[in-house]
Structure formats: structure tokens, C-alpha cells
Specification:
The complex is a heterotrimer. Chain A is mainly alpha-helical. Chain A has helices at 2-22, 26-46, 50-74, 87-90, 92-110, 126-136, 138-159, 162-169. Chain B is 68% helix and 3% strand. The chains are: A mainly alpha, B mainly alpha, C mainly alpha. Chains in contact: A-B, A-C. Chains A and C meet through helix 1, helix 2, helix 3, helix 6 and helix 7 of A and helix 1, helix 2 and helix 3 of C. Chain A: It comes from Geothermobacter hydrogeniphilus.
Chain lengths: 173, 334, 100
């Protein structure tokens, strides 16, 4: 049963990725990529990493992709004319993908927990994960948090508007 | 009867109960809001349909269903069609992990009053609330109208910003309860609720939740006097109804999250647990309506400054202080 | 029977698709999304091997990869906004001079 779910999910991930890299409209690409991340999150869940699966949804689908969507919409990068024609056929892949992902989620939620395929019966609880992360990799956590700080400062510096820049130079009025 | 059949039936019964409760709750929340706002503004509110206007939600639903379902000619039809559904479904699904009462004994077996007690329930809630953004955003984008686009851009940036402080306000709760499971978090509050043990986190969470629900004073995505109706400008009929119902379901869900995370869930003296839970949810929902009747709308830059320069740093400091206090109270071994 | 090889093959195909996207697309945002996809393919192989070896380190590494991806998205998108302000376009062909 896990084998079937694995094949469905990998097919979904591959199809979603293929659609994502071929779409003309960036918003559509984002939608397909979100589907790919969902399929990957479920695969992570099969592999005994529920915490990472949750992050995949929260961080990738919920934050990074939303940020992309924000930029795309703010810069109005989408082609002015929305493509016409039968909407249903054009979006058939999305229906297929969402459908298969939902079915797999339901199957996984009702299936025996922790029944991993192959390999050792491995399941990382949040507690184990936390101990591993903050005991053995404490220094790396610090470095990564500094990196996030630098990124925030960098994004703020690069993205500041023309007005702020002029004010910094002191020639506003 | 085989064991699995009983379990399945129990889950279905709970599912039906919660579904029914949420939908009627959302419908009567609309009525309650109109009534209360009316009273606050020295009006009566709806009182024509049925006694005390109690059939008003039904009349509204009939009106919405029979209205013309209009799709703008330049719209991205599929996304336009699906977006209200995303908004409503993400709101509904969240309730799957909310424990709304203590376990009860039924037919000689322990039945937990929660549909699915995930051991990462908090993360499930965060994940779904971050996905709820898509409904609003794609709806606004697919309408192909400038007001809808402006509204959805506003919604996007507002939801991303306030989700951060919301997540950071949950961290102290997880630290204190030592678990991601909402049932365990409620059980950890059997003595004192976390709202009393950690008031800053409670206040930060309450404000962020107000912003997440896109209601006054944070209703910039649909600010009527600036951008018509924001992201649902082009929606009519039942599609608009879905956005509308989704918003009220969201209010109920967020109120129950406040209850579960900070007000001790079903714990309380005298009354049975389930009554306490719904009383607390009702109180927080009332708070939502009250704020709407009282506060003016923020300006956009005020919203962003408040989120990023006040709430997020405050939440970070709160995480550190809570962690330090917990470490002092029971020092780590090894 | 699904072995670790299946996951690694899936990861390799996803990585290749990401690379293909980076090389063929000209819209900088889509290229960026393809890079995220490649990072995710790597995450998949980390998690698959972590499961195979019964070792938590792979999952912890994925955590770091995700932080890097978030930081990268923030800075990269800020760069793109600045670029768009100056050039009214985000086609990578327009950035080939690296000056303006």
C-alpha cells in the first residue's frame, strides 16, 4: 500500500514540477510548484519525518511561495490578457494533482502510523528532533540565525525605496 | 461490531457534529454581529424575519443562492471559481485538531472529543492558516480587476506579517506545555490558563489573530471606502457567500484556538467541559465583534509598522524570557 | 517494495527538472522558483538517506537548507524588486551587463 502511495505521489510531484517549469504565466507556475511541495511533504511524511513535512508546508508552500506570489502580483508580471478558452481543460492537471494528493493524505492519515517502507522503522518525534538540533548542532543553529538576520538586513537595504535613499543622502528638500 | 467500524462511525459522527455546529455557528455569528453592532450604534439590527430576526441567516442564504453568479469576462475562470472554496475549506479543516471537550465515556469506551489528535496539532494549525492566504490572493488576482488585485496584495502582506508574530506567540505555549499536541496543551492548563501565566503572549496572539481574521481594525484587504470591497470586489452570489461564511468560520476557529492555547480549553469549575469551551469561544467571538464596533481602521503603514516593529520584537523577547524562566524553574539535566 | 534507491531516483529527476528550468527559462522569478525546486530535491535525498540509515542528522540538515532557502528568497526577491524599478523588466537577458 505504501508502495502505491509512493508511486502516486512521485508521479504527482514530477507532473507538478514539469507543469511548473513550462508555464508561461508565473502565477500558474507558483500554483503547480505548491502542488509539488505538497506531494514532497507527503513523501517526507512517509519517510518518518512529520516535522519536516509540516515545515515543508508552512515554510515553502505557506511562506516562500506566498512571497513569490506577492512579488509577481506587485510587479504585475502576468501577461495582461488572461488566456481564454475552456478553463476546465486547461486546469485538468491541477484537479488531477490536488485530487491525488488529497486521496494520499487521507490514506496516510488513516493508515497505521509509523509504518515506514523498507529500511528501519524510523520515526522522528519532535522531541528527538529538538534534542538533536539544539544539542549537537547548537553552533550551526546560531550561525543560521545570524544568516537570517543578515538576510533581513540585506533585504531591507536592497529593497528600500528611492525616497529613503534620497533622504539618506540628504537631498530631500 | 468490529472495532474499526465503531471507530469510523464515531469519527463520522464527530465530523458531522462539528460541521453542523460550525456552519450554524457561522450563520448565527453574522446575525449576532449585526444585532450587537446595531445595539452599539443605537439601532435594533435585523428583527423582521422570524422572532428577533432569528431566521435572518436563512433568508440571507436564500438570497445569495438565487443571485446571479457573475464571472468577469477577463477573469481566470478556474482560479476565480476555486478561490472561495480554498478560503472556506482551509478554515473548516482547521477544526479537525481542536479539542472541544474532555474525553467522554460512550458505550464503554473512551471517546476523545477531537476529530484527529495530531501530535503536531499546532503545526497543522499554522500550516492551514498559511494556506488560507491562497484563497484570498488567487481570488483577487483571478478577478483581473485593480481593486481586487490591490486588496489581495494587501491581504498577502498583512497575513504574512502577522502570521510571524502569531507563530512566535505560540512558541512560549509549546515551551510551557512541552508538547505540540493541542490536547496536551489543554491538559497542561488544568491549573492556571496560560493567559494568566504568560499575558504578553496572550495579548500578542490576540492581536495577531484579529489581523489574521482580516477584520476591523485590520480590515485593509477589504477596506470599503478605499478599494471598493478589496479581494472580493468581483464576487457575487454564492461565491461571495463562501468568502463571507469562510470569514466567520475563521473567526470561530481563531476564537477556539485562543481558547485552547491560552484560556485553558474545556477546563473550568462547576459546568461541564464542553459548555465551558463554547462559553469561552463565544466570549472571544464577542470580543471580535466588540472591537469592530469600537476601533477605526489602521492606515497601511501603521499596520506594517505595528506588526514588524512592535509585535514581532515583543514576541521574540517574550520567547527568550519565557525560555529563561522555564530553565530557571527546572534546570536541564546533563 | 520501495527502497532508498527509488527516493534517490525521484530526487535526481526533480533536481534535473529544476536545472532544466534554470537553464531554459528567462523570467528571473521562475528561475528562482526552479532553484527552490532543486533545493527541495536535495531535501528529499537527505530525508530518504536519513530514513535509510536511521539517523536524524539528515532531517536536521533539511532544517538548515530551509532556513537558507528562506533567507535566499528574501534577499533575492528584494534584488528583483530593485532590478524591476530600474529596468521595468525581470528577464535575465536584460541583466547580462551587471550594471546600469
Amino acid at each position: 500500500m505504501t508502495a502505491a502511495i509512493f508511486y502516486i505521489l512521485s508521479a504527482a510531484a514530477l507532473l507538478a514540477t514539469l507543469m511548473a517549469i513550462t508555464r508561461k504565466n508565473p502565477v500558474h507556475a507558483v500554483i503547480y510548484l505548491v502542488h509539488a511541495f505538497f506531494a514532497l511533504a507527503l513523501i517526507f511524511f512517509i519517510l518518518g519525518a512529520p516535522l519536516v513535512a509540516a515545515w515543508e508546508v508552512i515554510i515553502y508552500a505557506g511562506a516562500i511561495m506566498v512571497l513569490f506570489l506577492f512579488i509577481i502580483m506587485m510587479l504585475e508580471l502576468t501577461p495582461g490578457e488572461a488566456a481564454r478558452g475552456p478553463g476546465w481543460q486547461r486546469w485538468a492537471p491541477v484537479i488531477l494533482l490536488s485530487g491525488s494528493i488529497v486521496v494520499c493524505t487521507l490514506l496516510l492519515m488513516t493508515a497505521e502510523p509509523q509504518a515506514g517502507p523498507g529500511g528501519p522503522n524510523f520515526y522522528a518525534s519532535p522531541r528527538d528532533f529538538g534534542y538533536g538540533l539544539f544539542k549537537e548542532y547548537a553552533l550551526a543553529v546560531e550561525i543560521v540565525s545570524f544568516q537570517l538576520l543578515f538576510a533581513a538586513v540585506g533585504a531591507f537595504y536592497v529593497g528600500r525605496g528611492e525616497r529613503t535613499r534620497r533622504r539618506a543622502r540628504g537631498d530631500e528638500r | 461490531m468490529p472495532e474499526w467500524l465503531v471507530t469510523t462511525i464515531l469519527i463520522l459522527v464527530k465530523l458531522g457534529f462539528v460541521f453542523f455546529l460550525l456552519l450554524t455557528g457561522a450563520a448565527y455569528m453574522v446575525l449576532a454581529e449585526r444585532k450587537l453592532l446595531g445595539r452599539m450604534q443605537l439601532r435594533y439590527g435585523p428583527n423582521r424575519v422570524g422572532p428577533f430576526g432569528l431566521l435572518q441567516p436563512l433568508a440571507d442564504a436564500v438570497k445569495l443562492v438565487t443571485k446571479e453568479d457573475f464571472i468577469p469576462s477577463q477573469a481566470d475562470k478556474f482560479l476565480f471559481f476555486i478561490a472561495p472554496g480554498i478560503a472556506a475549506v482551509t478554515a473548516l479543516l482547521t477544526f479537525a485538531v481542536v479539542p472541544f471537550g474532555p474525553p467522554i465515556r460512550l458505550f464503554g469506551r473512551e471517546v476523545p472529543l477531537v476529530i484527529c489528535d495530531l501530535n503536531i496539532g499546532v503545526l497543522y494549525f499554522l500550516g492551514l492558516s498559511s494556506l488560507a492566504v491562497y484563497g484570498v490572493t488567487l481570488g483577487g488576482w483571478a478577478s483581473n480587476s485593480k481593486y481586487a488585485l490591490l486588496g489581495s496584495i494587501r491581504a498577502l502582506s498583512q497575513l504574512i506579517s502577522y502570521e510571524l508574530s502569531m507563530g512566535l506567540a505560540i512558541v512560549p505555549v509549546v515551551l510551557m506545555a512541552r508538547s505540540f499536541s493541542l490536547t496536551n496543551i489543554v491538559n497542561a492548563q488544568a491549573g492556571l490558563p496560560f493567559a494568566i501565566l504568560n499575558p504578553p503572549a496572550f495579548l500578542i496572539f490576540l492581536v495577531s489573530v484579529l489581523a489574521e481574521s482580516k477584520r476591523i481594525p485590520f480590515d485593509l484587504p477589504e477596506a470599503e471606502n478605499e478599494i471598493v470591497a478589496g479581494f472580493h470586489t468581483e464576487y457575487s452570489g454564492m461565491r461571495f457567500g463562501l468568502f463571507f461564511v469562510g470569514e466567520y468560520i475563521n473567526v470561530i476557529i481563531l476564537s477556539s484556538m485562543v481558547t485552547v492555547l491560552f484560556l485553558g480549553g474545556w477546563h473550568g469549575p462547576l459546568l461541564p467541559g464542553i459548555v465551558w469551551f463554547f462559553l469561552k469561544v463565544g466570549f472571544i467571538s464577542f470580543l471580535f465583534i466588540w472591537t469592530r464596533g469600537t476601533l477605526p481602521r489602521l492606515r497601511y503603514d501603521q499596520l506594517m509598522h505595528f506588526g514588524w516593529k512592535i509585535l514581532v520584537p515583543l514576541a521574540l523577547v517574550n520567547v527568550i524570557v519565557t525560555g529563561a524562566i522555564l530553565l530557571l524553574l527546572n534546570p536541564a539535566k546533563g | 517494495m520501495i527502497t532508498v534507491n527509488h527516493y534517490l531516483v525521484l530526487s535526481a529527476i526533480l533536481f534535473a527538472l529544476g536545472t532544466f528550468g534554470v537553464l531554459t527559462r528567462r523570467n528571473a522569478i521562475v528561475i528562482f522558483m526552479c532553484i527552490e525546486l532543486m533545493l527541495n530535491a536535495v531535501n528529499l535525498s537527505f530525508i530518504a538517506l536519513s530514513h535509510h540509515l536511521g539517523n536524524l542528522d539528515g532531517q536536521i540538515f533539511v532544517f538548515f537548507v530551509m532556513t537558507v532557502a528562506a533567507a535566499e528568497a528574501a534577499v533575492g526577491l528584494a534584488l528583483m524588486i530593485t532590478f524591476f524599478r530600474n529596468r521595468e523588466s525581470i528577464e535575465v537577458d536584460d541583466i547580462s551587463m551587471l550594471k546600469w
